[in-house]
Design brief:
The complex is a heterodimer.
Chain A: H1 3-32, E1 50-51, E2 57-64, H2 71-81, H3 107-114, H4 122-132, E3 143-149, E4 155-160, H5 166-176, H6 178-183, E5 187-191, H7 197-200, H8 203-209, E6 215-218, H9 223-231, E7 238-241, E8 245-249, E9 252-261, E10 265-275, E11 279-284, H10 291-301, E12 302-303, E13 309-315, H11 326-335, E14 342-346, H12 351-360, E15 384-388
Parallel strand pairs in A: 1-12, 4-5, 5-6, 6-7, 11-13, 13-14
Antiparallel strand pairs in A: 2-3, 2-15, 3-4, 8-9, 9-10, 10-11
Chain B: H1 2-7, H2 14-17, E1 18-22, H3 28-49, H4 61-80, H5 88-93, H6 96-126, H7 133-138, H8 143-170, H9 184-204, H10 206-210, H11 228-231, H12 237-254, H13 268-298, H14 311-335, H15 345-374, H16 389-405, E2 412-417, H17 421-432, H18 437-467
Antiparallel strand pairs in B: 1-2
Helix pairs in contact in B: 3-16, 4-6, 4-8, 4-16, 8-9, 8-12, 12-13, 12-14, 13-14, 13-18, 14-15, 14-16
The chains are: A alpha/beta, B mainly alpha.
């Protein structure tokens, strides 16, 4: 072989190799990447279960699940304000309003107008708010009372979120006797799941009856939220909870998730209860992290009775505005494999979702559709659900 | 000869035969054009899309729909209709800025007529209600979601059209109508690809729309969709994923691969079929790999979860990842003369592929690190307000307008007509590759190396993912 032929041969080899690399890589990608063999490369799930103890029972009374009354108004406001990323404190929604236009407000300008009324003169505060806020009539709120029974029969009461509208929440508190429980010191703590308007902004209503109540918040609150707690006249302790399992009392723990949420909110925490001989109960505010993610995390990180998922209650954040997407059907379909014994859902779950749960045959505890709750598929305002051994 | 002259009354062959001469030396033309495109991009993004801007169409689906269809209509004007009814001499003599404004306005009129007239007006009012926001509102869907749902259906149609339109030109070589004059050729290919898009839409997207409404529309669509058990989701994002890969691979094949390796097949019918279906096969392999890559970096998808761990978003992200690759591919072709060119075609193709993949990875990292700071999108990978396909395709549309309608102004100028660049590239590849035992040995060695490369990559991906962490856990 002469020099010229050697050169040609070398070039042929390189050209063949270059072509072959592409063929080989693409063929491997096509054959292996979505094959069952690929699963051999996934790490095994390691369960690092924290023992949180056990409790005897959990009872949840729904004080209010109707966070707003018109999807159309809420979505319309968000859209007109500039979308899902706009800071909630700037909307001029109640109570943070200064008489300006939609999305032109601020925490400081609004608080200057109502601070003098907080937390005792809420009627006067609401009078100002009704005259100056965008859609004050649309504000409702999410809040429920969680009653945990120890093995020795002692009952612990925790207020789980505090709603939105001062007027609506005060009515709801009175309806369920929460005002008296707060005033009597029966409720041990206020647990705020996240900073959203409909879970947190009704804070003065709680503080009106119990200004020194201990408050537990995720450590992802913005400065406005922390300042609001002070400006509302809170005199008790504030605990900021970080990531990981946070033990609250025997059989009760919370988990916080660092997730971006609409209206410039970040992070949500929810609660778990380990009911003796029965299993794990999850109580959520909005569950922005997704209920499956919440349960999968619990599976990995918390030790619970019989390895059984016993119950589920709260807003599951699937179709909060009664919108739909086939990916929500994925959740409806796959929730079955977790085999919950009792499910109570409302708020941001979506009535369509609740109906699909019922049609699929899941053990949904229906409600009574009273006090402005819209459908019996929801465990609505004034309804209760109990998980006991 | 007479027939060729007749076809060239309009812009047939204009894009292949024009010679673009840089106005400045070195990398300056590309830098100038980047600055120019970035200004146009950001100004138009603010006017049309940005949630904090003027029209705020990034809802996201309304903005997404217009972006996808803008891409398709630009392709129709330049690629399918060869600029008809604009004449060749007008294309050659008109100042690029004037040309860009007129052709963009012409494309926009087609876009508006198509969406408002064809989808909202005709199909939405007289055929399938979900194409019309007004019809959806009438039956009780909230105004915001009525517009979002109809936009989703319309943009899903565009995803298919943006693959089939260019595929008929690049892979099927406009056959069997390649010798017809414009606008007959354009209309014929347009009708054919539109017809195929309708069929593929009904098979791949309509089942998604059928279960978007409560209860599932079982009498009018397959529910649950046929792909459920394979894709681990009922969402049409599965179809979006592989179809987006098809869209991207068509352009990879047409630009940095210079139609290699199917261009080596001399039998026209075999070559066209091989290229058309080969692109689909490559796209499916790419889609599978990109899904697997996410599993390796983030962990196995869990059905029913939200955001990064849900299979439906993973399939959508397959398409998004592919689009991240398309931008450097087109940039290399349009503004760097498809560099490198000094080696044989297969070596050039491998080098360009590697360069653009590395550039895409860097672009991906930069986008997710910074986009929320200036585009008005949400921070994070998966969120209703985080659709990287919208700004990227918006930028690609502006690149296409600059390259096709404006002859790369201001960094370049159109000098005179030259030889057909595509034909020249094909001839070069054919002259370089001739069958020999050494070529076969090289091919076999290359296949083995490709397999080894693939397995090395998938073993390295979990570590690479950790190393390139964008958002700490």
């Amino acid at each position: 072989m002469n020099k010229k032929e050697k050169g040609a041969s070398r070039r042929d080899f390189i050209r063949g190799t270059a072509t072959g690399v592409g063929v080989g890589a693409l063929a491997s990608a096509g054959v292996f990447s979505y094959s069952p063999w690929r699963k051999s490369m996934f790490p095994e799930v390691i369960r690092n279960q924290v023992d949180i103890g056990v409790c005897k029972s959990v009872k949840v009374t729904n004080i209010s699940e109707t966070s707003w009354f018109s999807n159309s108004d809420l979505i319309g406001d968000i859209k007109k304000a500039g979308g899902l990323l706009v800071n909630q404190y700037s909307f001029n929604w109640p109570p943070f309003c200064d008489g300006g236009d939609l999305a032109k407000g601020s925490y400081e300008s609004s608080m200057a107008k109502i601070k003098e009324f907080l937390p005792d003169r809420l009627d006067e505060a609401w009078e100002f708010i009704e005259a100056n806020a965008v859609h004050p009539e649309n504000a409702g709120g999410f809040s429920c009372l969680v009653e945990v029974e120890d093995l020795d029969g002692t009952i612990h009461k925790i207020l789980f979120d505090t709603g939105w509208s001062y007027k609506w929440m005060d009515e709801c508190f009175k309806r369920e006797g929460i005002d008296k429980m707060l005033a009597n010191g029966e409720i041990e703590a206020l647990f705020i799941t996240h900073e959203h308007f409909d879970h947190f902004w009704g804070l003065p209503v709680t503080l009106k009856y119990a200004p020194d109540i201990p408050i537990i918040i995720p450590d992802t609150f913005y400065n406005e939220g922390k300042q609001y707690i002070k400006d509302c006249g809170h005199t008790g302790t504030v605990t900021e909870v970080g990531s990981g399992v946070n033990k609250i009392m025997p059989g009760v723990a919370s988990l916080k998730f660092d997730i971006p949420i609409i209206c410039r909110v970040f992070g949500e925490q929810d609660m778990f209860f380990n009911v003796k001989d029965k299993g794990l109960v999850s109580v959520t505010g909005c569950c922005h992290q997704g209920i499956i993610k919440f349960v999968e995390t619990a599976y990995k990180e918390i030790k619970y009775e019989n390895d059984n998922l016993f119950g589920l209650y709260g807003g599951l954040h699937i179709s909060p505005f009664e919108d739909w997407d086939p990916k929500y059907d994925d959740l409806v379909i796959s929730l079955g494999k977790y085999d919950f014994d009792r499910i109570g859902c409302n708020h941001c779950t979506g009535i369509v979702t609740a109906k699909k749960f019922i049609e699929t045959g899941y053990p949904v505890v229906k409600g009574t559709a009273r006090f402005r709750s819209q459908d019996t598929a929801y465990l609505g305002n004034g309804d209760t659900i109990e998980f006991k051994s | 000869m007479a027939e060729i002259e007749k076809t060239e009354i309009y812009g047939t062959g204009y894009l292949d035969k024009r010679r673009l001469i840089p106005r400045f030396r070195g990398p300056l033309p590309a830098i100038v054009n980047f600055i120019f495109l970035a200004i146009i991009f950001y100004a138009t993004w603010w006017i049309f899309q940005d949630p904090r801007g003027l029209m705020r169409m990034y809802t996201p689906y309304v903005g997404y729909m217009y972006t996808r269809w803008l891409l398709v209509t630009i392709i129709w004007v330049a690629y399918i209709f060869s600029f008809w009814p604009f004449r060749q001499d007008w294309l050659e003599r008109t100042h690029p800025v004037i040309k860009g404004i007129i052709l963009t306005a012409f494309t926009s009129v087609i876009l508006i007529v198509l969406i408002k007239g064809f989808f909202h007006g005709l199909l939405g009012n007289y055929s399938i209600a979900y194409f019309s926001p007004e019809q959806l509102e009438k039956i009780g869907i909230t105004s915001f979601y009525a517009l979002e749902y109809s936009s989703l259906a319309i943009l899903m149609f565009a995803a298919i059209a943006s693959w089939l339109g260019p595929a008929w030109v690049a892979a099927a070589e406009e056959a069997p109508w390649q010798k017809m004059p414009q606008p007959v050729k354009g209309i014929t290919i347009w009708i054919t690809t539109f017809f195929l898009s309708v069929i593929i839409y009904f098979v791949t997207m309509h089942p998604h729309m059928g279960i978007l409404y409560y209860p599932w529309q079982e009498f009018t669509s397959i529910a649950p969709p046929w792909w459920e058990s394979f894709a681990n989701t009922v969402s049409g994002n599965f179809s979006i994923g592989w179809i987006m890969c098809c869209t991207v691979v068509v352009w990879v094949y047409e630009t940095i691969w210079e139609r290699y390796p199917f261009s080596l097949i001399r039998n026209s019918i075999l070559r066209r079929f091989s290229a058309f279906f080969g692109i689909i096969a490559i796209s499916l392999a790419l889609a599978a790999f990109l899904y697997f890559a996410q599993e390796l970096v983030w962990g196995e998808a869990i059905r029913g979860t939200r955001r990064e761990f849900s299979p439906d978003w993973r399939w959508l992200h397959v398409g998004e990842l592919a689009i991240f690759w398309l931008l450097p591919v087109l940039w290399l072709k349009f503004y760097h003369g498809n560099w490198p060119n000094r080696f044989s075609t297969p070596v050039n193709v491998v080098l360009r592929t590697l360069i653009t993949i590395v550039a895409a990875a860097g672009f991906y990292w930069t986008y997710y690190k910074t986009a929320h700071l200036f585009l008005g999108v949400q921070k994070g990978f998966s969120h209703p307000q985080q659709f990287p396909m919208i700004p990227i395709i918006w930028f690609i549309c502006i690149m296409l307008i600059n390259h096709w309608f404006m002859d790369n102004w201001p960094g370049w100028k159109m000098k005179e007509r030259g030889v057909d660049a595509t034909e020249q590239a094909i001839e070069k590849a054919r002259s370089e590759i001739s069958w020999s035992p050494t070529l076969l040995i090289g091919l076999v060695a290359g296949v083995v190396a490709g397999i080894v490369l693939y397995f090395c990559l998938i073993y390295a991906l979990p570590t690479l993912g950790e190393w390139l962490t964008i958002y700490p856990k």
